[in-house]
Amino acid sequence: MSDCLFCKINNGEIPAEILYQDDEVSVFRDVSPQAPVHFLVIPKKHISTLNDLQPDDAMVIGKMMLTAKMVASDQGVSESGYRTVMNCNSDGGQTVYHIHLHVLAGRQLEWPPG
Ligand code: AMP
Q1: Which one from 38, 46, 98, 100 is the annotated catalytic residue?
Q2: What is the pLDDT along the chain (114 residues), one digit of tens a residue?
Q3: 3-class SS at 67?
Q4: Quick one: which of 13, 32, 45, 37 has its CA closest to 93?
Q5: Which of 33, 107, 8, 25 is nearest to 69 (CA)?
Q6: Which domains are delineated in the chain?
Q7: Taking burial as the number of CB atoms within 10 A of a residue's CB, which of 12, 52, 84, 111 is the most buried?
Q8: Ligand 1 — pocket residues by CB below 6 A?
Q9: In this structure, how many other beta carbons lie within 10 angstroms of the beta carbon of residue 38?
Q10: Centroid of ligand 1 to alpha carbon of 5 (angstroms)
């Protein structure tokens, strides 16, 4: 999608600190980290919100989780632990309308979130 920030990161139009990339997903550090380790896993395909997921997207959603696990390991936080979050729409706190999995780690995270 031409006016989507994360599509522009996917195609290199906007720079980001890329941690991993393949044909299906990109992983980059969040520009405003909420924990010592905070990265985002996004699909190459533009999907605006979780509400827009279709049955055909099951593989890419699974790929996003497996990629989160792999990059968490690369970042050395597998054993200490991490949190994955996907916000949906306004009440969920979504601000960028291209789905993304937050991965936060490196400090004790509180529950429930505020
Ligand atoms: P959300 O509020 O769940 O939609 O999360 C969007 C996230 O994208 C926020 O944590 C932002 O800090 C992050 N973000 C926005 N612009 C950029 C960017 N150019 N590069 C990296 N992360 C970004």
Answers
A1: 100
A2: 789 999 999 999 999 999 999 999 999 999 999 999 999 999 999 999 999 999 999 999 999 999 999 999 999 999 999 999 999 999 999 999 999 999 999 999 999 987
A3: helix
A4: 32
A5: 25
A6: 5-105 (3.30.428.10)
A7: 84
A8: 5, 14, 16, 28, 30-32, 87, 93-96
A9: 18
A10: 9
